[in-house]
Design goal:
single chain, 438 residues, mainly alpha, Na+/H+ antiporter like fold, 2 strands
Length: 438
């Protein structure tokens, strides 16, 4: 327990992502086996099981899989938003010099796979899937890196994490801008109103959860009918959550010191004295509220939502999204243009884009390789970045209208992610130092 508390936030973040990747892959394998077993009808029945509410005489309902993808995944995107804001304000993206390498690497690793996909799919219904090979699954990528233990330099872990977070930001922007059908302006106006209410609740530092939850649900519901994917609401809400302490450290220490001194003058402090000594109760409450203001809300939420995201939300998403029915028609036409675009984009496009843009950043002297990191290590990480999975599957369901194309895309994502994971692991295993580095 003491060891866990001594870990930095970054170490806990990496640990939760690495552990969650194991559960994620189990869920994905379960989905594929289940969807192709004699219990496949049960799988599809549960996926389409209608769940909803009746309000003012109207019924609002969605299938279970839809609730997971548009409801629970909003929490996933909320955590992504918190990660992005934390890194921009406090982490590896907080200065131009620190941010240049992972940002340019992520841009190269997103644009190049999209162009390779476009090369194979220049027209027709498959064209809209160009965003599929752009994504990197941070949980799987960090999970593979974690298998190499202490041999991995901290600089390489930070580089991969920052790269994947920028990659997530690019994916969020792509979903918001390019995978939006018809926009309903009034719904966005209502969403803006609820965002304002959430912002006012944050500014007021209210301790009442309802005053945050009500406008947050309002933002999500408004986006549901706006034409923009509802999960974007999670990112926008996250950007309003402070990731720094809401009280100055000097003020906090001074307030705690004064409250403790006054508390010592109120008589004996026992387990039961607060029940009748109102002055003691007030002073202890002051200490509690000051400590609560000192804990950054964004970091607090990210810490407590990471396990929910890693061990509940993403496995449920994988369970309902990865269930591809493999039949003769898919096998006969595999690999097709969609498959080639995705697999070549993820396996080779990621490598080419990340390596080329990283080299450009170093050559132009706007960034430096992290301490202890070599170009061989960057190459290994660029291969790991080809593990698309979560975001790639998510975008495939948004971008491809045909279920046949979606199934083909998912199979391609599985194959490419598996190859990228294995190849990246062995490249790094061969090139990393045999002893632990810092």
């Amino acid at each position: 327990m003491e060891q866990e508390s001594n870990k930095t936030f970054f170490e806990r973040f990496v640990h939760s992502q690495a552990s969650g990747s194991i559960i994620l892959i189990i869920a994905a394998i379960t989905a594929v086996i289940w969807a192709n077993s004699k219990w496949a009808d049960l799988y599809h029945y549960l996926s389409h099981l209608e769940i909803g509410v009746i309000f003012a005489g109207k019924t609002y309902q969605m299938g279970l899989a839809h609730w997971v993808k548009d409801g629970l995944m909003t929490i996933f995107f909320f955590v992504v938003g918190l990660e992005i804001k934390r890194e921009v304000l406090l982490g590896e993206l907080s200065s131009l010099r620190k941010a240049s390498l992972p940002v340019l690497a992520a841009v190269g690793g997103s644009v190049t796979p999209a162009l390779l996909y476009f090369y194979f799919n220049r027209s027709g219904p498959a064209l809209s899937g160009w965003g599929i090979p752009m994504a990197t699954d941070i949980a799987f990528a960090i999970g593979i890196l974690a298998l190499l233990g202490k041999r991995v330099p901290n600089g390489l872990k930070l580089f991969l994490t920052a790269l994947a977070i920028v990659d997530d930001l690019i994916a969020v922007l792509v979903i918001a801008i390019f995978y939006t059908a018809e926009i309903h302006v009034m719904s966005l106006v209502v969403a803006a109103f609820f965002l304002f209410l959430f912002f006012m609740a944050v500014k007021s530092k209210t301790k009442r959860p309802f005053l945050y939850l009500f406008p947050a649900i309002g933002v999500w519901a408004s986006f549901m009918v706006s034409g923009i994917h509802a999960t974007i609401a999670g990112v926008l809400i996250a950007l309003l959550v402070p990731v720094k302490s809401q009280i100055d450290p000097g003020q906090f220490l001074d307030q705690i010191k004064k409250s403790l001194e006054r508390l010592g003058q109120t008589g004996p402090l026992t387990r039961g004295s607060l029940t009748y000594n109102k002055q003691q109760w007030k002073l202890v409450e002051e200490i509690y509220l000051a400590a609560d203001d000192m804990i950054p809300p964004g970091i607090f939420l990210e810490k407590h939502l990471h396990p929910v995201q890693a061990f509940v939300i993403l496995p449920l998403f994988a369970l309902f999204a990865a269930g591809v029915t493999i039949n003769a028609s898919i096998i006969a036409s595999f690999p097709g243009p969609v498959s080639l675009g995705i697999m070549i984009g993820l396996i080779f496009g990621k490598q080419i884009g990340i390596m080329a843009f990283s080299w450009l950043a170093i050559a132009c002297k706007i960034a430096d390789l992290p301490q202890g990191v070599t170009w061989s290590h960057v190459w290994g990480v660029s291969i790991l970045a080809g593990i698309g999975f979560t975001m790639s599957i998510f975008i495939s369901e948004l971008g491809l209208g045909s279920q046949t194309l979606i199934d083909e895309a998912k199979i391609s994502i599985f194959i490419a992610s598996f190859i990228a994971g294995i190849a990246g692991y062995f490249i790094l295993k061969k090139t990393l130092p045999l002893e632990a580095t810092t």
